[in-house]
Amino acid sequence: MKISMIAAMSTNRVIGINNDLPWHLPDDFKFFQTKTKGHHVLMGRKNYESLPAKFRPLPNRTNLIITKNEKYQAENTHIFHSLENAIEYAEINGEQELFIIGGGEIYKLALPYTDTIYLTEVNASLNGHAYFPIFDKQIFKEIQRSHHATDEQHLYSFDYVTYHKKVSEKKMYECL
Ligand SMILES: NC(=O)c1ccc[n+]([C@@H]2O[C@H](COP(=O)([O-])OP(=O)(O)OC[C@H]3O[C@@H](n4cnc5c(N)ncnc54)[C@H](OP(=O)(O)O)[C@@H]3O)[C@@H](O)[C@H]2O)c1
After folding, report:
1. Omega prior to 57 cis, within 30 of 0
2. 14 CA to centre of ligand 1 in angstroms
């Protein structure tokens, strides 16, 4: 099973403010919907609670939430108390591509398990409370980039960027 992250961040790595998104970028939202539809999506409890009620749980996706709270409940979702148990659940369920959908704590936690990062790089420096982790660009190589200009619906321009983890030589030989 492939593990992918999908996120949008500002030039200073901000992804959220006051448990909300710092922007309204409808085309990026559509990109997120298209990419994740039909898949397992794994998120932190705070991210889940930040979703607007009508998108909670995210429709047409299997919603996995992680929390340290043993009593936590949310209708039509699956609750886990460790990242590893949530990943294992998706794998056992036959998922081909699990999406890590944030927020900041969960992106940081999941980075070592991640194969691909779909990162929307928003061309603005903004205030915030949640950040996307710094990742090593020697390990994650940019393989695709497409630009979206500012328009009446999008206050900021942005780039859709895909980063792929390079497979180490050792790992390649292990596959032979
Ligand atoms: N721009 C984007 O792409 C994007 C995407 C997603 C979210 N966001 C934004 O990100 C912000 C939320 O991010 P955040 O960093 O504050 O919170 P978060 O990562 O969504 O959730 C943090 C919570 O996850 C649980 N957790 C963390 N580590 C855990 C572990 N090892 N085991 C079990 N549970 C664990 C804890 O829940 P308990 O406290 O219940 O134990 C913790 O409080 C919001 O502003 C949201 O809008 C932005």
Report:
1. yes
2. 14
